[in-house]
């Protein structure tokens, strides 16, 4: 299965448009550059949409869920049943992501990429289950390459459907007990960082258990080895939700959508997407810097600039939802803030 067939991501480079956007931003009634990252976001979104007057339409949040057999190695302190229980909670509007999506106007969908549970049909549930959880990658690859490609393709199909419906802003969150382990392994493999330096507590491991978790991940990487292609590494050390996120982000970039990247696990999906096609970065906004120690290493590796630093470590897409008002403000600044000429204010920059 060729999950990434016909995947062409357009560059956002447009010197004439960039100069015009910069002129419009600089002509607002403020000192040049004084709105800081808000100005950078406005420039990025204008280039993504190839316009001086961008708009944010029908924002969607995808919270993508899967289970992980690596939890058999006691890398998480909480039971795996929480994955499906929280998914049901989200579908009922609960949890952190439930109330934040309601508050900030996101249309929230839960995607079953590989939960070890049989859900009843629900209008906000997207069933893309490849199998009931990824395998224990201490013993064998988490996914076969075919399963990984299926998850990538699933992500692409989901996002393409929303793009066809007019959505141009999409946030990615996740739910999956134990998924900080594959995220950490992928960080180590893709960025070449020793796994011992980027392993964190996940759902709340004590320091001695974090050390043991790092040793499990180190043994797994040594046993399976680092592959030649990003897809093979994703199959060896990733998870079904992470692969689905990666495919979704790649498709979102292909569709010229704005991608809101959440925390540690969602960013590991971005790392996979970036390894497959670095052009995806032009479309990504890193919503926040997680309190999970490996997250900043991920963002630094791809040269990102997080919007918020609230010491979050919940996942689910919560950081993406919280950053959205800042994104909205950047677009409003570009479209609505008056210029020196309009305000009849003397422009000291001229």
TrEMBL record:
Record field: catalytic activity: 5,6-dimethylbenzimidazole + nicotinate beta-D-ribonucleotide = alpha-ribazole 5'-phosphate + nicotinate + H(+)
Pathway: Nucleoside biosynthesis; alpha-ribazole biosynthesis; alpha-ribazole from 5,6-dimethylbenzimidazole: step 1/2
Keyword Glycosyltransferase (UniProt): yes
UniProt keyword terms in alphabetical order: Cobalamin biosynthesis, Glycosyltransferase, Transferase
EC numbers for this chain: 2.4.2.21
Family: Belongs to the CobT family.
Protein name (database record): Nicotinate-nucleotide--dimethylbenzimidazole phosphoribosyltransferase
Species, as recorded: Draconibacterium orientale
